[in-house]
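User: Mind token order:
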Amino acid sequence: MYKKILKKIILLIFLCIIYIYVLVINYLPDKITIFEGENISLKTFFGFTIDAEKEVLTVSANTGEKTINQAGSEKLTVNLFDKLFIKNIDVSVLPKTTVIPVGNIAGVKLYTNGVLVVGMSEIEGKDKVKYKPYENTGIEEGDTIVKVDNDTIHSTDELIEKVNMSNGEKVKIEYVHDEETKECSITPVKTDEEEYKLGLWVRDSAAGVGTVTFYEPATQSFGALGHGITDIDTGDLLNIASGEFVTANILNIKKGENGNPGKIQGTVEEQETIGEISKNTEFGIYGKIQNIASLNIDTTKEMEVALRDEIQLGKATILCSLDNQNVEEYEIEITKIYKENNYNNKSMEIKITDEKLIEKTGGIIQGMSGSPIIQNGKFVGAVTHVLVNSSTEGYAIFGDLMLKQSKEVD
């Protein structure tokens, strides 16, 4: 009796250990990007060993942390108990980078690949009957229509034109759902206005204001916001075809308070182009600066991007512009650091401590996303979120995450 129970316990423990090893193996990435001297953060388990092809991997005797102090490409080999090959990990080692923290408010204009479906509604036909032409087609809110009858769609106007040209005959729709391209057919409905409609509400662009985080003189590239731009209706990250950064005119600042975040209200109409946006990601928006003069950048403020081990709890500052004029520096405190976080834009917790900024804004407000954070003369990250129930507290992203994303754009 006891032997049977013991065998079951041993089997259960064995299966749990196997499960842990499988999880660790699945968790290991296929590729990583680091800076020279940055610790390689890979969660492993007993028996895993990591070696480098070119013998450039150094291991700290005290902590066991692994680093590479040589820019270029490297391949790490993961083995189990030094005998069983598990996988290779491609490593891109970037040279230490210098940037100019910016802090200017700017306007963002994004244009999607195809048109984004943001809603659906019944259509009353000319016969006074209500129809749902999109029903049973598979199209959902958040999908992107990219082609109609094999013709590429770039804007809502093009979609309207193609549907009206159908004269009520079925049209073939090609759309993207969860990164998978699909097809369906829809019969448009004729309305009293002699127009043909699909019952789909769509959008082909988005606009707003945010803060420019950094400018890298060596590549003339920039990063901003620290988080991606999502569609207001679907909540999905916008898949963009192109975009532009423009100067913005601040109209008003709505002061935030606990439970009611504030915001910077501005306009991007009739403003000057700063540069092109090439990528909208969870870690910010990125592109190239074409008109450097429009940002009034102080080129003497170029500084290194801090490695995560250099970031400390305690005092730091942020840069932001709140009056269409000068960028000002305000005091904050870094209260928590999540060193191993490579997966979202909540790398640090911060708190606004500058009474002058609190008086102006109540703390962190919408539009301040992307405000660069500086500590000990180095760029360490950018503001990304405010805590709804505490307007002076929020999250920030590591600067290295933004720079790595920027390099992927290049």
Q: What stands out?
A: The longest strand covers residues 200-216. The helical segments are 2-27, 156-164, 355-361, 399-409.
